[in-house]
Amino acid sequence: MRNLFAGLVAVLMAVGPITVRAEAARDEHSYAHLDEVRIKQVYLDLDVSFEQRQLAGFAELSLDWKKPEAKRLDLDTRDLTIERVSAQRADGSWANAPFALAKRDAKFGSHLRIRLKDAAPKVRVYYHTAPTASGLQWLEPAQTLGKHKPFMFSQAQAIHARSFAPLQDTPAVRFTYRARITAPAGIRVLMSADNDPVADGHGGFRFQMPQPIPSYLLAIAAGDIASKQVGPRSYVWTEPGRLDAVAKEFEDIEAMIVAAEKLYGPYRWGRYDMLVLPPSFPFGGMENPRLSFLTPTLIAGDKSLVNVVAHELAHSWSGNLATNGTWRDLWLNESFTSYVENRIVESVFGVDQALMDQVVGQQELLAEMKELPALDQHLVLSLKGRDPDDAFSGVPYQKGEWMLRMLERRFGRDRFDAVVRAWFDEHAFQSVSTEEFLEFFGTRLFDTKDSPVQRQELDAWLHQPGVPKHALLSHSARLEAIDAQLAAFVAGKKNAAALEANAWSTGEWVHFLNGFSEKADAAKMADLDASYGLTQRQNREITMRWFLAGIRANYAPSRDALRAHLIEIGRRKLMMPLWTELAKTPQNKAWATEVYQTARPGLHPIAQNSVDAVLGYQPR
Ligand code: BES
Ligand code: ZN
């Protein structure tokens, strides 16, 4: 089937520049038959129970039949209990429909097949989630800032939506949605939709998302959440105890939206709000439409980590408008977004900051790729039989951003910007593939007469490991000054105090510590700590790298703070390098395994999976 399809695409592409909207019948990470039927609208009616750690109710799916004679609906689920299914007949009446839930697959969950008498316009699935749902995290009050109320949030990307709603869980399908969610008194519910700051939740919180979205952008959170308006179309939402700090940190949001609009056209989603979650949130941010989910580790007090907000905002164009059709092409979401993020940073915070981000990103990518299997270094991923979470790395972010910057440089900003803008415009609310990227950018840029870029060069970025030899490294004068300081410090020509690092920004410290880490020794660390109090810093981008150096140099004074960090911070990027480094020696691994006993219950299921693998931990 796949070969036949690929053959057809090849033939059509050879015919010439007629646009082929290649619509595959299957996505290898979904049980859905996309050529038969597609979900076009969803209504969720669910109750949030903290006691049972479950969502319970029904999902009503409105269907767009391509093959009415198929008489079946294949859905993705994971650890859902299906109570019953009912289907609507053409005359509007409802009747129970038979269904079969297949055995659970460890990576993809359980295929739910519903048998229908005809092409039902609507199907309702009554269900509840499992306490262990991979896409939800249920927090005890003790894991929140306020300590009095529980909290719950979802994380659906890549294939976790199926653990909290029965869906065609593939980015190839888009639907609009509405929802009514009930929750205990004193708990506010938010979704990736139109959140009403004055809703009181009486009779349930009601939501609408009128723009069609893929399933991985379905999102929900519930807890003690307050809001504050920070811009003409933006609110921040978080626990009351950090509301003011969050509002201050993200006060530049409107400037960022305006900067992005100037480059890539109007923001099409109405409001852009930000929800700051408890520290177990496993990512820096997640681009849930109208409501980005963010880690509290961004609240550094000096706006130094708001590039993550720029990133999630950028997804409002790259990813949420033009969406990777399958997870093989994650790079189409993340590379464009990283590139756009950097353009926003440049225009709001200046070119120095943007260049520092580029240099740090490139150097961290080169370091990371040394440890990655060759196939995972391709922009186009090979995911056959794999959970997309397992192929997650900096490659779709930094390597792809690097390639796009190469195109920008060769064709010039004006030309390149116009094509990127057209890419978002002409694929708004659609899914895209690498093949479509090549056709679109080929016709407009690299297949044109006298093009300064050849197609083979792109193939090397897309389908080869590493970074092509001709790739240009970004340069930052400020970071080059740090390199000189580092060299003097490591050679013993300067002591810590002589570095005069009190005024260093987060980016400068990150760069210094990245370089220092491999060469760290305990005496130098003590010297740095005495001058700059690094062990006690609150900025987690800095402490993560400091702790990493501490593990390598066997620097005992940072151990207690490292332990606290590992227990409190569930953001994968800020903990995985530490667990991974600790696992390298038997003594450190034993210590880490002991810490993990305490840390594991507080971690998100996705994060638990990652750490389990590194420490060889066998969950009972
Ligand atoms: N969409 C991603 C997070 C993601 C990717 C979750 C793939 C699951 C599968 C989000 O936009 C993201 O990239 N977050 C980064 C931000 C950073 C690169 C600025 C993060 O969490 O660190
Ligand atoms: Zn992203």
Structural class: alpha+beta
Uncertain regions spanning at least 5 consecutive residues: 1-20
CATH architecture annotation of the largest domain: Sandwich
Summed over residues and divided by their number, the pLDDT gives a mean of 96
| Oligomerization category of the chains in this entry | single chain
Q: Using only CA atoms, what is the Rg?
A: 25 Å
Q: What is the CATH third-level topology name of the largest domain?
A: Immunoglobulin-like
Overall body shape: globular
CATH class of the largest domain: Mainly Beta
**Main sheet summary:** 7 strands, mixed
Total helical segments: 18
Content of β-strand = 15-25%
What is the topology, as strand order, of the major beta sheet? 5-4-8-2-1-11-13
Query: Which ligands does the model contain, each kind named once?
Result: ligand BES, zinc ion
CATH superfamily of the largest domain: tricorn interacting facor f3 domain
The strand count comes to: 21
- N→C terminal distance: 40 Å
- Percent of residues in helices: 25-40%
